[in-house]
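Consortium newsletter contribution from the modelling node. Members have asked for a concrete example of what our holo predictions look like. Here is one, prepared for the zinc ion complex that several groups have been discussing at recent meetings.
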Amino acid sequence: MTYFLHRAPSILLSAARASAAPDSPAGDAPESAGPVDPNLLEDLVLANRILANQGVLDGYGHVSVRHPKNPERYLLSRSLAPELVTAADIMEYDLDSNPVHLRGRTMYLERFIHGEIYKARPEINAVVHSHSPAVVPFGVSNVPLRPLYHMSAFLGEGVPLFEIRDAGGMTDLLVRNPELGRALAQSLADKSVALMRGHGNVVVGSTIPLAVYRAVYTEVNARLQVQAIMLGGSITYLEPEEGRLAATNIAGTIGRPWELWKRKALAK
Ligand SMILES: [Zn+2]
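And here is the predicted structure:
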């Protein structure tokens, strides 16, 4: 057991104290949706560490979860390298990505990715934004990212590209305001993964384990696809029907890798 799990109750207590005495100078901070089940906070903390262990997140990138008591709120760490995130670092935001309790903490510049996707996709409860390295080339190439094997069958629904120039012209490539977040959510549409040209990708799911699973296997598929291309012959990708069948089957088994990844993250 690592110390961050034991800190979960203290964040709940401090959240309760703070909601009694809002710390926004203007007094116009969004209202808290209330304490969160420590198990969900634990899953969010572990998702950060698992994605770092799997090479999806490094010093950058983030993962969030929708607040289970209020769909208009979500939970995301303060600005911190994912591997260092503890339950005490988790902040609550409204869907415009305003913090409920700032308390002097630094926020991720790109939190708008999360808020705007939660607005656009009511069925989505977890969002991962990463610079997952093997995936980046597919965001700058005209070679589409396609499912090579059953584990990444969810890619068969299509992987849209977010071209930030279409939304914001010349930028520093960061989704640093609500308009860019909305444009990204529009590019993602009803899909599970969107590439962000010259930047990274975003992956969504109805649960934390599903979003983590998809983020991991998007990275693995990208690696394998490059290897298959390097073989030089023709490539047989999954047929759409195979993709649908495999994605349905795999979705029922993700508890297995999730428990393994959790165990490994806890052992670190
Ligand atoms: Zn980014």
